[in-house]
Amino acid sequence: xxxxxxxxxxxxxxxxxxxxxxxxxxxxxxxxxxxxxxxxxxxxxxxxxxxxxxxxxxxxxxxxxxxxxxxxxxxxxxxxxxxxxxxxxxxxxxxxxxxxxxxxxxxxxxxxxxxxxxxxxxxxxxxxxxxxxxxxxxxxxxxxxxxxxxxxxxxxxxxxxxxxxxxxxxxxxxxxxxxxxxxxxxxxxxxxxxxxxxxxxxxxxxxxxxxxxxxxxxxxxxxxxxxxxxxxxxxxxxxxxxxxxxxxxxxxxxxxxxxxxxxxxxxxxxxxxxxxxxxxxxxxxxxxxxxxxxxxxxxxxxxxxxxxxxxxxxxxxxxxxxxxxxxxxxxxxxxxxxxxxxxxxxxxxxxxxxxxxxxxxxxxxxxxxxxxxxxxxxxxxxxxxxxxxxxxxxxxxxxxxxxxxxxxxxxxxxxxxxxxxxx
Length: 423
Prior knowledge:
A hairpin with an 8-residue loop joins strand 7 and strand 8. The radius of gyration is 21 Å and the shape is globular. The chain folds into four domains: 2-94, 3-Layer(aba) Sandwich (Rossmann fold); 123-191, 2-Layer Sandwich (Dna Ligase, domain 1), CATH 3.30.1490.20; 194-330, D-amino Acid Aminotransferase, Chain A, domain 1, CATH 3.30.470; 331-423, Glycinamide Ribonucleotide Synthetase, Chain A, domain 4 (Alpha-Beta Complex), CATH 3.90.600. The strands form six sheets. The chain has a five-stranded parallel β-sheet with strand order 3-2-1-4-5, sandwiched between helices. Strands 12-15-18-22-19 form a five-stranded antiparallel β-sheet. Strands 6-9-7-8 form a four-stranded antiparallel β-sheet, sandwiched between helices. Helix 5 (98-105) packs across helix 6 (107-116). The protein has helices at 10-19, 51-60, 72-76, 78-83, 98-105, 107-116, 132-141, 165-176, 244-264, 298-304, 309-317, 393-406; strands at 2-7, 27-32, 42-43, 63-68, 92-93, 124-127, 146-150, 159-162, 187-191, 196-204, 209-211, 216-217, 220-222, 226-229, 234-237, 271-280, 283-290, 332-339, 363-366, 369-372, 375-378, 382-390. By secondary structure, it is an alpha+beta fold.
């Protein structure tokens, strides 16, 4: 079949690499893509949020499946647009409708959903200007640090974790006054959870589901988890502390109740659910839901999948996931992200990337790159994800580190401690 993959990051490069391995794939279009995806399929310079333009292209090219990589088009209603249009309803959209995407696009919706269906999570309250006094009471009741989350998408900047009560109260006022635009017209206040994070993923048709390999990502720019949050500086899979007992708790206490809740709310769902979890003394609690795969987790999860990924997508559209068998590589995969100097704040792009052809121990997934006249240049804050396999976490990390040292571009920065806290 002819397939469109939407996105331009490392996640989409990792997804594209699996899609082209499939016996079901004829042509792969990546919209808009990057220098890495260009080697796997056809990059198309269209705006993926212009659904009519996308529909025209898909119809002209005989596209049968569209896979949105990020949450943006899902929260904008791409599934609804295509499925409710007589001319495009035959095209399979691998992602939820707008109603299902609320799990990610509205922190308030997801917290109320978790509370309603007894899914373990932090105690919380949703605040607007009308009930701001209830917010002040909540902040007085909980111990620091204080967690404030903009209800809607805020470009990764809508979560504040503050140690001082006065700062938390002032930040609540500022957020409700428009600090993050419409995203913070409502603010979720949460009790802080202590523990260690991990990411768990399922692929589902709303009833049946496949549990994918878990991963742990590293968000801070500095080693030993210091400095500003980023889109992710690296990841590992599998996660050593996620043993059989812990995974069983996740499935019984979180995955199954989530799907039963969606069914009870009459929300049809097809696609990925990403559970951002906290391991609190051996018990999993949900930090947040996402309705797509993570990045850079995708760069360790997808390479570990050995079975046909497009067959899995197709099985969900025909309600036959129970006949799909997921085969995975038992080795450890690590990825280290090379980023532009100054990221996640001010950084420059257009720096030539050299020595890519010298990489032999790792897979180089392009995240923020652009090809011009046969040369590859930086085109974003996160530039390349270097994924390596080995029998041990330390050996896989060392391979990625050696590759990171070989690749050269002005301002290159990376963390050297990815996964070391799990040894």
